[in-house]
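Database export, one record per block. Field names are fixed; values are copied verbatim from the stored entry.
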Amino acid sequence: MDTLEQFDAEFFRRWLGAAAAAVHREADRLTELDSAIGDADHGANLKRGFAAVTEVLDKEPPATPGAVLVLAGRQLISTVGGASGPLYGTLLRRTGKALGEAGTVTRQDLAAALATGVAAVGQLGGAQVGDKTMLDALVPAAEALGTSFAAARDAAEAGALATVPLRARKGRASYLGERSVGHQDPGATSSALLIAALAEVAAA
């Protein structure tokens, strides 16, 4: 994919629509993962949140990529319970704010903005790579996005899989101590779905 290609607000709406479809499709698996080391509500919460996102974006489509992400993030924060609402909401809002008011953005613009959003998630949750959280998928994805959308997808998926042998050091799973080992982190898994949806829409 040419780094100079420009992506508009419609592209970002399609991305979030594809993410909502993926979350809907995988909600049971996300909840199953969460039942092992969390509150067993990750899939249901995200499904509700992303459905609300697509609804609000359809109702009044924002004019810029940044505005699409800011509105989506705000909607997630207001509709999703637990930790995932504020974390995903912060990711999208901060990424959107970093994109500014440009009518179109390049993949490199998005990579830089996503890195800003991911850093904000780390600050909010006090986590870093290796703590068995969504950052294990998001940090490598943001770095690989500078190379290509497909590289970001692959990095996110590899990051999610790499959480299986880790002991959780943040979030609800950290209360389990050694018992958190051997389970794939649901937040990293849903983050990989979000990045896979981005790659899917970019390739269409």
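Remark 1: The CA atoms of residues 10 and 145 lie 20 Å apart.
Remark 2: Helices lie at 9-37, 42-59, 65-79, 84-99, 107-125, 135-144, 149-161, 186-203.
End of record.
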